[in-house]
Amino acid sequence: MESLEGKSYCASAFLDVSQAFDRVWHEGLLFKLKNALVDHFYGILKSFHQQRHFIVQQGEALSDLCPTKAGVPQGSVLGPILYLLFTADLPTSESLITGTFADDTAILATLSDPKMASQILQKGLNDISHWLKKWRIKANEIKSVNVKFNLRRGSCPPPPVTLNNIVVPQADHVRYLGLYLDKSLTGQKHILTKRKQLGIQTLAGKLYWLIGRKSQLSLENKILLYKEILKPIWTCGIQLWGTGSHSNIEILQRFQNKALRMITNAPWYVPNELLHHDLCLPIVKQEIIRHTRTYKERIERHPNTLARPLMANHNKARRLKRKIPQDLIQTQTQ
Questions:
Q1: What confidence tens digit (pLDDT) does each residue in 90-114 have?
Q2: I want to staple 37 with a disulfide (CB 3.0 to 4.6 A). Which of 41, 253, 271, 315 is the partner?
Q3: SS3 assignment, position 309
């Protein structure tokens, strides 16, 4: 958002790591653990990976017992931690913003010149490509995405970027950590995608026999199904897409109106406001404010001091008429 405010250009690459947890090279992991941990911790983690074997079954036939030389145990508490330790030395640069969460990696370069931004991004990808080969990690170049975040229209497209000498596909949006980010950061792509998932032809349609007008379930159970299955889908990432325009937010509000009418079998003359009040369900805008306030309180109490500025008040003058999460709370307070 800061790059859009400053009329800058943000070139980004979102990398897809193939079978990330299954391809952690044991020898490389132990080498890094030995340098990072004291001897007794290293010895415990070393024994954790020793004497592990696997068998392949095809029909009734079984393969021989083979030693496991890569991968961290799936479903274990240590699995994600060991993967983070293995990838902690991912190449970074002062001219790049690198964001990682488990195997989701985003690289961003922000400049006023699109070509220079792409060149800096390419240099960062070259360093990462060398690092991936060194530590035997495989990135899927075709499933990775190159997005150019900007508000410029009619400008010449910047040169593409490559990973392992393969062109990374360009797109107008990307799915990252469960959120769909469009190149203008309006949140519309995310909202439309969630609305499609909740459509009568998809999830809501499959639940119609349980929550529909002819269902014999009690009203309390219908509302419980809505809260536990349908509502979490559209509230995901609400602190971010909730800053979108009124027209985008109304897309999800109309869905909730239809869902409550279907659940209660309410006639046409019953107002939507009355349905929300009687069912004790807040409207979408109220949900946005509630989730944002809760998120702010959690950030302020977070033990990591680096996380606390995420919801700090920003009084800087802004060029764009865009909201940020802090605006939602301040508006409600006023």
A1: 999 899 999 888 888 999 999 888 8
A2: 41
A3: helix
242-267 pLDDT, tens digit each: 888 899 999 999 999 999 999 999 99
Using the CB atoms, write b or e for 170-209: b if 16+ within 10 Å: eeebbebeebbbbbebbbbbbbeebbeebeeeeebeebee
Mean pLDDT of the chain: 87
Closest CA to 260 of 218, 219, 215: 219
Strand partners of residue 10: 110, 149
Q: What is d(CA 237, CA 252) in angstroms, rounded to the nearest whole number?
A: 13
Q: What is the DSSP letter of 160?
A: P
- Report the 3 state secondary structure along 282-310: CCHHHHHHHHHHHHHHHHHCCCCCCCHHH
Paired tokens of 133: 């080969």
Q: Taking a C-beta distance cutoff of 8 angstroms, is the pair 329, 292 a contact? A: yes
Six token digits for residue 27: 């020898």
β partners of residue 100: 105
- Global pTM value: 0.85
pLDDT digits (tens, 9 = 90+) for 206-232: 888 888 888 899 999 999 999 999 999
What tokens appear for 181 in the block? 């980010």
Neighbouring C-alpha atoms within 13 Å toward the C-beta of 22: 6
Closest alpha carbon to 240 in 288, 281, 192, 197: 288
C-beta of residue 325 within 8 angstroms of C-beta of residue 309: no
Yes or no: say if 139 and 44 are a contact pair by the CB < 8 Å rule. no
pLDDT value, residue 221: 94
Q: Closest Cα to residue 263, out of 228, 290, 224?
A: 224
Beta bridge partners of 68: none
